[in-house]
Amino acid sequence: MAVTATLAFQSCDKGFADMNINPDASAVAQPEFLFSKALLDTWGNSYFSTDALFAGGSMQHFATYKDVPGLGDKYYFQQGTYPYDYFTTGYPTAAIEMATVITAVDSSVNKKSIARIMRAYIMHRMTDLYGDIPYSEAVKGYASNIFTPKYDAQADIYADLLKELDESAQALDASQPTFGAGDYIYSGDVTKWKKFAYSMMLRIGMRLTKADATLAQTWVTKAIAGGVITSDADIATMKYTGTSTSNRNPVAASLLSNDYGAANGTGNTEGGKYAKTFIDVLKSTNDPRMGAIAVVWTGGKTDTTSSLQQGMPNGLLLKPDNFGTLSEPNPATILQYTAPFIVMSAAETKLLLAEAAVRGWYAGDAATTFSEAIASSMHNWSLFGAAGVIASDRVATYQAANPLTGTTDQKLAQIGSQMWIAMFLDEQEIHANWRRTGYPVLTPVNIPGNATGGTIPRRLLYPPSEESVNSASLQAAVTRQGPNAMTTHVWWDK
Question: What is d(CA 160, CA 180) in angstroms, rounded to the nearest whole number?
């Protein structure tokens, strides 16, 4: 019996080994699939905590009467992981995935260049939120056994981001293979990727205006010469099928799951509504984007009538009596799982070009470019479906009522205020542009016990895990940059 059992065990061993091999898994990274996954993770990273609550609250687009989600609304941080979600989730997903793709496609000039452009996008958002971060030694634990990466100075990070965009844009070759359908942004269109790279260069170059105006002008001029996005046909949008939880628009997915899923105006889990500041500006200027953006609930149905829209003041400590009648995101546009995420639009680039013209860095007419940016911003809402279409006569009326005029400072204020509206939903970028320009001028709240002394936060916090596992590198960054506090200014935020 013992011999028989032994033979039986030996004869079954190979079968068990085969059963432990997943026939649907790959033993090595498949860069085409990993690139698609990295794109999903880039915008699926911490939208509710980082964009809606922190950046959207502090930029007074969103408001909440509750304290736990009040990081941006009240500058509160009492519990949870809100200040460092983007850091702790971003590195082990999109950052390492895109770095792996770059290595795996080394012999494919277009795939490598596009992945490098995307890595620059991922890391520029990370550094804008935190300042000095692991960059040159980041995500090298598996490949190089670097488990305590140094924190690079943001000035050095920005220099490398611009280099990466410059080299990648120049290397793109329309005759070579791309990621094709696995590219959810441009479906492999190299010409559009090149425009996106130079548009990113324009954005990042303009970010330097306070830190180094001469350097800013150099890169802005280079970006414009390379060719930025100026047509609505070339804008970069991330597309979603909505068929699975991993392939849903992150704005819709996070807002529905955390606040607006009840769809009745009252059952908001995190106590969120649109901020009064935002709604008041849209109403006072008769902005036709209001109908695409906001609704109130009346008799169990949504109503986009402009006169009915009301925002909730930031900094409330108690639920207001009229909470159920306050404005929320439009379910027919913003809360659609299949809605696109606008990564880079002609509206943004034209506003940046208008600013460059005001500064004397661009030969185009600032007023005309500014007006075109407004039209592009309004056209973008049609991408969200029929409920987002804005009639051309309403666009023209708003343009005529809002020309770019006045002194240099007044023009910069107008451009900054339009950026605040045009880039709504990309709250990280709005927060970064506000820190750079100071526009629009926002009145901060000053709730007892807030973490900033009543000033709008300038950055997010490094996670506690870094203090325990990478303390020496973290301390070097803090010594160079300043305290790990929401009031510390990053390098370009002078």
Answer: 27
